[in-house]
């Protein structure tokens, strides 16, 4: 009995200790103040315009962060040292040093100061003013891609918008930069003059491959989009109370967070559908919105998978950002809030409350940190959170980037293991279903050592166009490169599955950089217009680049065999349309087909029309982006010159190259122009040696052939006419006229022969 009482008392004491356990423990970061060396703030000290503190984390470089408050702090070590407030050099002459918006674009920090944009390159420790902005701006927006140096990823990090929040959308000036904000140009949004309302923001939603514009009108807001098929309508309207800050979560998943003191909204599809976040306080209390829960938001932080909210009521709220919606859960109260406090995630399941602390002696501020272990907090029995049903969710594609070129596909696999006696519902989703389609198959794949069933999930990804299941009004333009993310999550996953994060990969539906084309082995104009030059061109043959030339007999129509290779392996022989151009301007070749014999419906393009177009730069500008097939029913160019050579090879025609009577080396540039074969600009150069042509005569053929023909005809006529003429009276007289001279000639010849004989025999006489 005594033992039971003691055990009960111990258990009660442990429970009481667990309930009074603080949410987090404060500690202060104070560095560089051992020696009394006072650092001075240089230039104009910056400050944030909002009364609520903001904290921006670099999604790729985890130690880079920017704190925005009454002072602004920029850290490169995640606030692990004391810092001076950020200031801008006086030489920039910013006037009032008030910051209204900020963005970290790769390795530079963009700040909107006094309605102008300034760039701080923190690696070079240099400041610059942006170029190209001619009107006041208040905000910048952008994103960062953390996967690789792929051009698609680089473009994401380089893209920045600048705009004036609250300006009338029909007449506002929006600027876009693809140079991380160093240089801007005006951005023209289609049908902008027809739009009604004020501008709430403009963003590049790379997860959807769309530019989204937030329109605010009479307390309602909705998104408009730039590209087909979303440009024909708007997203669903939602309540817009106050001035909402918009947070694009990392990872290009299309998750947006909208928040104000009395409002918290979320969108999981780039603004097409925006809805309020529910709030859960205790096991039985659920509020439909922040305002209904009567709480006041002070700071918001989010990463790819989680959302945390700090309120002025000294409470911390948390929810997961999975595929399906979830509610904010209220954690136990603690004295956490202050006017300068801000939230940030340091890792998955790790959130930190940061507060700058001024120093009475030194100008550098210290930082108070209160780290919260989310997983440990969720173990509190008072929260009554269910245990995670899953033991493992694993896939090699997680946090990687892939490319799907046109007519290509991608196969991904994942492994899922539930807890004993539990069942899981996997859910696969793409952020851009207009471009990327999927098919998933799940099956049992054996057992673990402790008897749990292993489930294997095979995911097939292709362009939505090639699945053949979507309406053309739903799919995006197949000619335009796009992007999407794919996310695999568990639909019935509990909030306690903090460490079991969704699996995500970024998919570029565009050019596969590993592809290249190879040519299977088997007269000069400097302006490439088919006109003779005034002097010869001496060209060095680049053997290291071109290798041995291909042999081609001049009198045989010829077409190069173009092969597609990827990562050093042969893929296929390309049957798509392509074009050739001799790089040194030789035009001693033509084509076997004309526009008419190629069955063109419209006037075909050729190298002359391509080069004459001012929008095409350089002589080799014919590619998939400007090619228009003459067989396309939408091509309305009239067929005015049906007898011009048809200069496109491959595709539906049997067109070939015909060389003039000339032996020599040709160096050809070849470009795949079929826009439906690949998103890449597949091009290369190769050489051929044309042989078998006899040298051309110096004398024109007419000068020799005509006299020869006349002589032959005359000989035939004489052979017929002379014998017949000799039997006539005139012929007899003519014959008699020549007989007497011949007889005299014979006598003379005979006498001559006789004397020769005597003379030859005279030595015998001596």
Brief write-up:
The chain is an alpha+beta fold and 766 residues long. Helices cover 14% and strands 34% of the residues. The longest helix is centred in the last third of the chain and has 33 residues, at 729-761.
Walk me through this protein's architecture.
With 766 residues, this protein is of the alpha+beta class. Among the domains are: 390-509, Immunoglobulin-like (Sandwich); 515-691, no CATH class. 14% of the residues lie in helices and 34% in strands. It is built from nine helices and 50 strands. Strands 25-24-29-28-27-26 form a six-stranded mixed beta sheet. The chain has a five-stranded mixed beta sheet with strand order 3-8-9-10-11, with no helix packed on it. A hairpin with a 2-residue loop joins strand 43 (562-566) and strand 44 (569-573). The longest helix is centred in the C-terminal third of the chain and has 33 residues, at 729-761.
Considering the chains and any ligands shown, give keywords for the structure.
disordered C terminus, 6-stranded mixed sheet, 766 residues, signal, Immunoglobulin-like, disordered N terminus, 50 strands, elongated, alpha+beta, 9 helices, 5-stranded mixed sheet, developmental protein
